[in-house]
Write a structure and sequence with these properties.
By secondary structure, the chain is an alpha+beta fold. The protein folds into 3 domains: 116 residues, D-amino Acid Aminotransferase, Chain A, domain 1; 144 residues, D-amino Acid Aminotransferase, subunit A, domain 2 (D-amino Acid Aminotransferase, Chain A, domain 2); 80 residues, ACT domain (Alpha-Beta Plaits). It is built from 10 helices and 18 strands. A hairpin with a 2-residue loop joins strand 3 and strand 4. Helix 9 runs antiparallel to helix 10. The chain is globular. It starts with a strand and ends with a strand. About 9% of the residues have low confidence.
């Protein structure tokens, strides 16, 4: 098996051969920021949002971005390809650089160190997704600027070890009785049909749940403090922890909630459905490279969303605006097994790539649409 390839200061090389100075400020002070991005079917997930957050973290430690978004995208795309594509995660960090000495107040003119590597992204088992994972709670002892994704993660590792010692998956962190995050995950609490997430701010480095959670439309999103029961909602199995895949939190995984479609499980399943669609789109696009469409052609457009929305009316209006009226035999409707989602297929006469792109832009911007391909 070939060694993983990493990127270090302009060079791609085997990860085992990468070397940095022991005087790098990341090594001496944790003076660096990082991001971790899941990759599905060779494509980074929500890369723009991760890069936006990287820029905010750099601003928080008074550093200029060393690369533009486009340059990062090209770098990471090459790294993913060199590591075989497929499902991976990529870790990348920017340090303030090295100097000949150890000064708390850094000197001007340091050259930043850029490092990135990729590794296999192992999917969670079906049993884990269905039954959930165990969690404990602990006081949040991290520093006050958790919105900066600093590489100084000693407090996180100590808190994560607490859950490992207890035979649990995660430590849910509380500050003055209010939920902040997990030691290595983002935690949402599903309550009353709403996804509760602590507001963005210095206490949290998470993405917005609607954008990062991969389940737009699956639940109403509410960006405010979760219900004030000192983390009890998460302990009782109504929480969702997210690192690279959502996981339902249950204090005792053997005690499954009644019924098969609780709100937290629905959120997890919606994310799994989205990933399947992303992989299908990647395969379709890869085929399009070698087999270009010839216009005009009959082209199926598939849309998924919640059944309790105006999905069909809204999406049909968008499609017909660009393709003209559709005959009923060119509109197919399928309901998911649990009855919560609709899958619509519109067979249109595609006249150009620009026409299809315009349809997909409007569909993905529609709030009722969970997926479009």
């Amino acid at each position: 098996m070939p060694l993983p390839v990493c990127y270090l200061n302009g060079e791609y090389l085997p990860l085992a051969e990468a070397r940095v100075s022991p005087l790098d400020r990341a090594f001496l002070f944790g003076d660096a920021v990082y991001e971790v991005v899941p990759v599905y079917a060779g494509r980074p997930f929500r890369l723009r949002e991760h890069l936006d957050r990287l820029v905010r973290s750099l601003a928080g430690i008074r550093m200029e971005p060393p690369l533009t978004h486009a340059e990062w995208a090209a770098l990471l795309s090459s790294l993913i390809e060199r590591n075989g594509g497929g499902d991976q995660y990529v870790y990348f960090q920017v340090t303030r650089g090295a100097e000949l000495g150890r000064n708390h107040a850094w000197p001007a003119g340091l050259a930043p160190t850029l490092f990135a590597f990729a590794n296999t992204l192992e999917p969670p088992s079906a049993a884990l997704l269905e039954q959930g994972v165990a969690a404990i709670t602990a006081q949040d002892i991290r520093w006050a600027r958790r919105d900066i994704k600093s590489t100084a993660l000693l407090a996180n590792t100590l808190l994560k070890k607490l859950s490992a010692d207890a035979g649990a998956f995660e430590t849910i962190l509380l500050e003055r009785g209010e939920l902040t995050e997990g030691s290595s995950t983002t935690v949402h609490v599903v309550s009353g049909g709403e996804i509760h997430t602590p507001p963005n701010g210095p206490h949290s480095a998470r993405h917005h749940a609607r954008r990062g959670g991969g389940a737009r439309g699956a639940q109403r999103h509410c960006e405010r403090e979760p219900p004030r029961d000192r983390g009890g909602a998460a302990r009782r199995g109504r929480g969702v922890a997210r690192l690279r895949h959502p996981r339902r939190i249950a204090r005792d995984p053997a005690r499954r909630p009644a019924g098969g479609n609780g709100p937290a499980r629905t959120l997890v399943r919606a994310h799994a459905l989205r990933l399947r669609e992303l992989r299908a789109r990647a395969r379709r696009d890869a085929g399009a490279v070698t087999q270009p469409l010839e216009f005009p052609t009959e082209f199926p457009i598939k849309v998924m969303g919640r059944r309790d929305t105006d999905l069909k009316a809204l999406t049909r209006e968008i499609v017909e605006r660009h393709s003209g009226p559709l005959a009923e035999e060119n509109v197919r409707v399928r309901t998911s097994g649990d009855g919560n989602f609709l899958a619509l297929t519109y067979v249109v006469t595609a006249r150009s790539r620009e026409q299809l792109d315009a349809i997909y832009r409007e569909l993905t911007a529609c709030t009722a649409v969970l997926m479009a391909l």
